[in-house]
Amino acid sequence: MPELPEVEVYRSYLAHTVLHKKIEKVHIFKPEILTFSADKIAKLKGKSFQDTHRHGKYCFLKISSDLYLVLHFGMTGSIEYYRGKDDPSYSAVVFSFYEGHKFSVITKRKLGKIYLSSDIKEFIEQKNLGPDAYDLGKKEFINIIKAKKGKLKSALMDQSSIAGIGNIYSDEILYQSNLRPDKPVENLDDKAIRRIYAKMQSVLKTSIKHKTDFDKMPRNYLLHRRKPGSACGKCRGSIDKTEISGRSTYYCPQHQR
Minimal CB count within 10 Å: which of 44, 101, 111, 147? Predict the structure, then answer.
């Protein structure tokens, strides 16, 4: 599933491609991903996207001061900006611009969603999203974690507490923090929480810097070895697998304590 870094890369891509281009047509191939009636999106003809914003795993395209197109990419969603008659496979909605380019929202498993919203803050509140992980200050992060109970990985993935971190990046953050994903949150001291915050910021920034191209990420990252028995990139241990909050979880039992 696209997490905060992937969605931030999408947002930046959209900011450099689709803004200020007048929409000529909107083709809807998968109306089931729309959370509103299809005729509303057709009324975007003649309008243009003015700005972009992201909060957690949601990408916002500003149409006017009181109208935003909101994208959530589900498990396998993506976007593409292109010219030509042939649309990408699994295109759900395609925006055609008068100047000749197209912008496609792609979703293979139909789990993505497109929303219309009049206000970003109101949308965030309606979705019960916590503060964005990338913009979150250290003090606020410490307070959030101290108020949580249960397993550490579950706390990081709780979108109502911290928005943007999912399965892959929660594993990576804890791998780099030397902490077990199933460690009880209430057993953490302030030093450990500060370490998690620092690694969270580092991992997110590194991924965004490399446009989430895993091949360019540091070689000691867990994402290169998400397979039981793989050699750990930080110690002489090997990677183990468990399940937390219904998600496959990878960690090194030797250096993650």
Answer: 147
C-beta of residue 207 within 8 angstroms of C-beta of residue 169: yes
Between the CA of residue 25 and those of 42, 46, 97, 185, what are the distances in Å?
A: 7, 8, 7, 50
Nearest-Å Rg of the Cα atoms of the chain is: 20
Residue 179 CB-density burial (10 A; 0-12 exposed, 13-18 middle, 19+ buried): buried
Question: How would you write the pLDDT of the chain (257 residues) with one tens digit per residue?
Answer: 899 999 999 999 999 999 999 999 999 999 999 999 999 987 899 999 999 999 999 999 999 999 999 999 999 999 999 999 899 999 999 999 999 999 999 998 878 999 999 999 999 999 999 999 999 999 999 999 999 999 999 999 999 999 999 999 999 999 999 999 999 999 999 999 999 999 999 999 999 999 999 999 999 999 999 999 999 999 999 999 999 999 999 999 999 99
Buried b (16+ CB within 10 A) or exposed e, 221-236: bbbebbeeebebbeee
CA nearest neighbour of 69 among 106, 35, 27, 32: 35
**Answer CATH for 4-126 from 2.60.40.1930, 3.20.190.10, 3.40.50.2000, 3.40.50.2020:** 3.20.190.10
Alpha-carbon gap, residue 252 to 239, rounded angstroms: 5
Q: Which residue matches tokens 């793989």?
A: 230
Q: pTM for the full model?
A: 0.96
Domain(s) of CATH 3.20.190.10: residues in the chain: 4-126
